[in-house]
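A protein record in our archive is deliberately plain, so that people and models can read it alike. The tokens are whole numbers drawn from a learned vocabulary of local backbone shapes. For reference, a complete record is included directly beneath this paragraph.
>
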Amino acid sequence: MYQKERGITKMSKTMKVSVQAGKVGSTTHNSRNFDTEKADKADHIDTSRSHLNKYLAYYPELKHDFKAVEKKFYKEELKDWVAYKNRKAKKERHPERKKTSEQLRTNKRTAPQETIYQIGDKDNAPSPKEFRQWMNEMLKYHAQITKGYCTILDAAIHNDEATPHAHVREVWTYKDFDENGKEMLVIGKGRALELAGFPLPYPDKEPSKTNNRAITYTRMMREKGEQLAKEMGFDIDVTRSKRPHLEKDDYIAYAQEKEFKEFLADKQRRQLEEIGKNMF
């Protein structure tokens, strides 16, 4: 099934690039921070290959405990926002609205979101080395287009399951000001996407569930993944499937194709000073 050409592994069948965004995910599963030998649900994990997994984290010293990474980030980086929200709740006499950093971390609206990246399936997939190379390029592109408004908290490449794949957990943030004019970091995906410059799929229509900037972001990531995989020599199927496990928003076409292409060209000209800071 495998063919060697110019130092990379090529498959005899076409493959699809999968970018599944907006997942809840599990820090415990991702960081393998549990006894895989004893876990009843770990039958799909080949522990003899777990040493091939790769991990990275916002706090490198905690890269084998993703839950600890996320707890620390919410406690340290969002403390001013938490304090502001609690002062506001007290002033408005709504003590039930007070929040802790841990409540923000676990709340559906403010919790980290997970994206799963994969090429191919259990029968046809890149080697672990090739997938790692592809993911590093994807992380560079992610840093470029999100422009500092999306922080990768932790990420893992799993090579001990049927197909190499990556779990990337991130949080969208931007700077705002409290009642005293003090700057604070705030979670808000919609606003962060807007500040990063992502357009609506249909710019002439009101934002909605099927017309939001997250759709643009996901599409850009998928198309970049397809481009990179092709450049590596893989035969990639770019037709859009409507399989249930993929988000329906990913298949919405852009009404303003010309404007979208111009947007992409402009994005490619911009560079972050620390592009690709997070890499495996």
User: Anything to note?
Assistant: DSSP finds eight helices and eight strands in the chain.
